Amino acid sequence: xxxxxxxxxxxxxxxxxxxxxxxxxxxxxxxxxxxxxxxxxxxxxxxxxxxxxxxxxxxxxxxxxxxxxxxxxxxxxxxxxxxxxxxxxxxxxxxxxxxxxxxxxxxxxxxxxxxxxxxxxxxxxxxxxxxxxxxxxxxxxxxxxxxxxxxxxxxxxxxxxxxxxxxxxxxxxxxxxxxxxxxxxxxxxxxxxxxxxxxxxxxxxxxxxxxxxxxxxxxxxxxxxxxxxxxxxxxxxxxxxxxxxxxxxxxxxxxxxxxxxxxxxxxxxxxxxxxxxxxxxxxxxxxxxxxxxxxxxxxxxxxxxxxxxxxxxxxxxxxxxxxxxxxxxxxxxxxxxxxxxxxxxxxxxxxxxxxxxxxxxxxxxxxxxxxxxxxxxxxxxxxxxxxxxxxxxxxxxxxxxxxxxxxxxxxxxxxxxxxxxxxxxxxxxxxxxxxxxxxxxxxxxxxxxxxxxxxxxxxxxxxxxxxxxxxxxxxxxxxxxxxxxxxxxxxxxxxxxx
Length: 498
Known about the structure:
The protein is of the alpha+beta class. It is built from 16 helices and 23 strands. The model has no long low-confidence stretch (mean pLDDT about 95).
């Protein structure tokens, strides 16, 4: 009888459940979006209960549609939007308010206060991260500072913190009836509370932020059996846990030093494998735990995080209604020959890598009477490619490795216009794999390795196959002029917030 591995992909805008066979093919899938809450400018929230309910629903639907039963699933992996922070009561299972999403900027004051005492790189040697609103640690502090009930319950030992991986694993393994409270090294490395070298919660960081250690999950590897499902699926081992971008790196088979991938989703995230030693960036990148398979040493990455990529297309759709659906962006962009000298820098919640400027806000530059909505559509797509160029520049300087090809995945890689422009502006080939659901696939691989469904990473590489490749076709002069104009546009975003 055929056996399969399931993966929960809990993303920023939706939750999916995908079942893979031994060759990495998709045999079942279901997806459901959840509501985005924007209570004020710069604030972004999710309802963790809604996400948990959606997770159960997509799991049950995918199993029902495919005719599979729990016994067919040998292991379950989880991958998740990182940094999104939820605190909940372990006796009631109820969160203390909405989850604070990774894009949220409410912790700006907290981060600025810490930066005054030692700059934004004050904790970089220890955590691999700059001080930023992006990470979970300041979000935890904000909740404890602003929710008296959470603070009182934390003092009583009743509060649990988690990113979405911990929240889902706790609920899947029983919740208030003995749920397992755990995370993996990749997610823990995004909290600003884990020491990047020891892979343990750092007592000094906890003291600085006033966060009690008893609310934190146990840090485990990315591939081991954490517990067994108590509902939705019947006693299936939960055996893989990776933050979404690290999962995509793993699913893309970037197992060797110097290999890199870029995921084009709500945001855009480029990761390069730097081996078993963390490289502390001098150029605005993040040092992050890539993955840890069982008892093997952890593998580290350099990461460039771009806050707004696909979200810019959604913004044009929802706020301006210049397109009806996201897929309309490419046909609209193709109605014009170029960007009409228009550049959009989507610093909606500041700029992430390599600038880390929370004072920045978005701009559209180069507007003339000539410009139409086709130029805006094209500029929106090109902004993702330009931001990726900036990240790659920093990555090559930090790592000393010249990228030869870029492996890509995520929802935007079906956009041929964007992928061709990406190859053109980077001057390197861009390669899309046959299976583009690499985030879920990476979580499935980690879970399958833990239970022996796959024996080693060599076996996983056999599954990776090229679907399409875009090669550069732009003159060096055009490339340099366009990139210089982009840099000028970025400079216009600075110092908007006093």
